[in-house]
Amino acid sequence: MKIDPAAVEEAARLLYIRALKILPDDIKQGFTRLQAAERSATGRRVLDTMVRNIAVAEQTDNLLCQDTGIPIYNVVVGRGVEFDGWALKEAIASGVARATREHPLRSSVVHPLTRQNLHTSCGTRIPVIHIDFCEAPDCLTLEMIPKGSGSENNSWLKMALPAEGVDAIKTFVVDCVLSAGGKTCPPTIVGVGVGGTADLCVHLAKIAATRPLGSHCDDPQGRELETQLSNVVNTLGVGAQGLGGDATAFAVHVEVAHTHITLNPAAVNMQCHSARRALARFTPAGVAYE
């Protein structure tokens, strides 16, 4: 199967707009679960207001949040798929720029030193593009995740010592959630990366933070850590929007990688309650959106 760059450009454009306007069903279901479990009257009122905001945004075809974020695209390539890598990269960037101009969207991307905004949501090394591979034949998926500053500002890396064990990771995650408080617009998805190198560990944390609710770490020990931390964070009292209550997080997600014998890195990256994402699946039958 050969991938047409023009189809990728159009998909990248539509996915950016779609992600900003439609909240995934698993997140809506997550709100329902938190509303049912919330014991604080203030917490229930805040959650109800957030749910109404989501409904109004979707009913009126408006953005879920004014922060259009840094555009991130995850590309997963199946077996037998042919594509021009450079053309794919250019097509995604062109789709982002078109979405920003044609919708129009607020461009949140600036030069880090001059703060110049090109008003295309693009720039040096932006959009962020990650490419991975899978064994499924004749299939390419393109996932779009806009990551805003509220969630990105709450990111941490700790190069823990192996002798400190898992307890050091647990303490680190809890400290991060408390430090973030209401700044990530909770309830959040707390993404935790464990292992790898420093940069891989942070990347794993972001993969974890942007996974669908209900998914679990493939590693048995990582999955156990998810369960333990998910039970703990909602006892911290941060609550929805940091105003107190039980609904601090939808879940804690963990991703792991093997690491060096003298390393035990841990990273945290959070996703806000507006956990936006959209996906396009390319197959010989065409392009399907999820």
UniProtKB/TrEMBL annotation:
<comment type="similarity">
    <text>Belongs to the class-I fumarase family.</text>
</comment>
<dbReference type="Pfam" id="PF05681">
    <property type="entry name" value="Fumerase"/>
</dbReference>
<keyword id="KW-0004">4Fe-4S</keyword>
<protein>
    <submittedName>
        <fullName>Fumarate hydratase</fullName>
    </submittedName>
</protein>
<dbReference type="GO" id="GO:0046872">
    <property type="term" value="F:metal ion binding"/>
</dbReference>
<dbReference type="GO" id="GO:0051539">
    <property type="term" value="F:4 iron, 4 sulfur cluster binding"/>
</dbReference>
<dbReference type="GO" id="GO:0016829">
    <property type="term" value="F:lyase activity"/>
</dbReference>
<dbReference type="InterPro" id="IPR051208">
    <property type="entry name" value="Class-I_Fumarase/Tartrate_DH"/>
</dbReference>
<keyword id="KW-0408">Iron</keyword>
<keyword id="KW-0411">Iron-sulfur</keyword>
<feature type="domain" description="Fe-S hydro-lyase tartrate dehydratase alpha-type catalytic">
    <location>
        <begin position="11"/>
        <end position="280"/>
    </location>
</feature>
<dbReference type="InterPro" id="IPR004646">
    <property type="entry name" value="Fe-S_hydro-lyase_TtdA-typ_cat"/>
</dbReference>
<keyword id="KW-0479">Metal-binding</keyword>
<keyword id="KW-0456">Lyase</keyword>
